[in-house]
Specification:
Blueprint (H helix, E strand, L loop, with lengths): L1 H18 L10 E4 L4 E3 L8 E7 L4 H12 L1 H4 L2 E7 L6 H8 L9 E5 L5 H5 L6 E5 L5 E6 L3 H9 L2
Parallel strand pairs: 3-4, 4-5
Antiparallel strand pairs: 1-2, 1-5, 3-6, 6-7
Length: 159
């Protein structure tokens, strides 16, 4: 009986995940800057596309995509880039020094912490890294996850 219940729960979880849709409009959120100050929708710089990248410092795919973003930064220089992680603050500079040196210091890049663990239930990512490109009006233009997302987004950011 317990095995049957476990299978039912597993089935429902998989079904929910398959049917989950990424939000077509930018959801309400509050993340935290590395200095601990809150950052929410009202703090977004207006008039530009917005790239939200959900990453984990130990994720190899995230490391590759961050490196790709850094290497192709000139194509993203007119986009607000928000890099969100649930990692502790002490490991974040090590991540950028190792995989995307200087990216976190660019004027349009802001690294944020998801201290309250709201990104996953709010944005519904499938896997790391999850990348969401929103229009200046907050409409989802593209969602990508895993390897290759930055390259796929390059054509949209230049339009």
């Amino acid at each position: 009986m317990k095995f049957r219940n476990l299978l039912l729960i597993l089935f429902l979880a998989v079904t929910f995940q398959v049917n989950a849709q990424q939000p077509t409009l930018l959801p309400q959120f509050t993340f935290y800057k590395l200095d601990g100050k809150p950052f929410s929708n009202s703090d977004i710089k207006q008039g530009k596309k917005n790239l939200f990248m959900f990453f984990d410092c130990t994720c190899e795919h995230c490391q590759r995509e961050s490196k790709s973003l850094n290497a192709n930064y000139t194509k993203f220089k007119d986009v607000n880039i928000y890099m969100i992680t649930m990692d502790e603050a002490y490991i974040i500079p090590q991540f950028f020094n190792s995989y995307a040196k200087g990216l976190n210091a660019k004027p349009n890049v802001l690294v944020l912490q998801d201290k309250k663990r709201i990104f996953i239930p709010t944005f519904l990512p499938v896997k790391y890294p999850a990348m969401y490109l929103y229009s200046p009006a907050g409409k989802l233009l593209m969602y990508q996850s895993g390897d290759g997302g930055i390259k796929k987004m390059m054509s949209l950011v230049s339009k």
